[in-house]
Every structure is written in structure tokens, then in C-alpha cells.
Backbone:
């Protein structure tokens, strides 16, 4: 990569991994609990995994409520990572104000698609059980 002074110019994408589409910085938690700020390129999957307790990191240890309270999307992963780091440096008061711009009632923004995933899983299990009986 050519260097200009102390800045690095990128002439090509970092890698095909970074060129997959949309990236998200998001906040999980509740008004009375700790807030978790994360970043991912697989938003729905990642939030569902956190909600179901599949990840046993900070969200499990700190007892973070797994409600999706806020999110932002980015075309560039480096911008999303920078925003995640910025938000992690904010005070709780400032984070609450940000969340309330998008979600003043602190509802779980993922609830509708989480319910849809649950219904599809149940249907798949039911269909699998039916096909097993037919054999």
C-alpha cells in the first residue's frame, strides 16, 4: 500500500470478507441493566445468538438484558468499528439519550423477527417429525 506521510491509502478492498454488504453497531440491555455495545456483519444471527445465550461473554457474566435497544448500519466495517469504539467511550447518560432518539420506549427492536425465527424453527421441527413418521 502506498504511504503518504503518516496516512495509509487503500487502493483495493481490505479483503473479500469485508465486502459482503452491511455492517452494524448495536446496543443490547435495559434501562436498569448494563448496556452492551457490539459490532457485527451478521446482525440478525448475532443478535439472536446473544438473545439465546449462545455467547457466554460479557452479556452472560454481567447479566445484560438481551433486548436490542439501538443499532446503526454501515457500508464500511472500519466506520462501524470506529463508531463502536466511540460509543464505548460515552457515559451511560449520553448512551441513554442516544437510545431514546431511536427507541424512546426501550422496546426490543428485534422482537418481531425473533418471533418469526422461533415460529420457523417450530414449523421445521414439526415438519421433520411428520416426515420421520411417514418413513
Residues:
Amino acid at each position: 500500500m502506498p504511504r503518504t506521510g503518516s496516512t495509509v491509502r487503500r487502493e483495493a478492498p481490505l479483503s473479500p470478507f469485508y465486502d459482503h454488504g452491511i455492517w452494524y453497531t448495536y446496543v443490547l440491555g435495559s434501562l436498569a441493566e448494563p448496556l452492551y455495545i457490539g459490532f457485527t456483519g451478521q446482525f440478525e444471527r448475532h443478535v439472536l445468538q446473544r438473545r439465546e445465550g449462545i455467547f457466554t461473554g460479557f452479556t452472560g457474566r454481567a447479566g445484560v438484558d438481551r433486548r436490542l435497544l439501538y443499532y446503526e448500519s454501515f457500508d464500511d466495517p472500519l466506520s462501524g468499528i470506529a463508531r463502536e469504539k466511540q460509543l464505548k467511550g460515552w457515559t451511560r447518560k449520553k448512551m441513554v439519550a442516544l437510545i431514546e432518539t431511536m427507541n424512546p420506549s426501550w422496546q426490543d427492536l428485534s422482537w418481531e423477527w425473533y418471533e418469526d425465527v422461533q415460529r420457523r424453527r417450530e414449523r421445521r421441527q414439526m415438519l421433520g417429525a411428520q416426515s420421520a413418521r411417514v418413513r
Q: What stands out?
A: The domain at 14-109 is CATH 3.40.1440.10 (GIY-YIG endonuclease). The chain has one domain: 14-109. The radius of gyration is 19 Å.
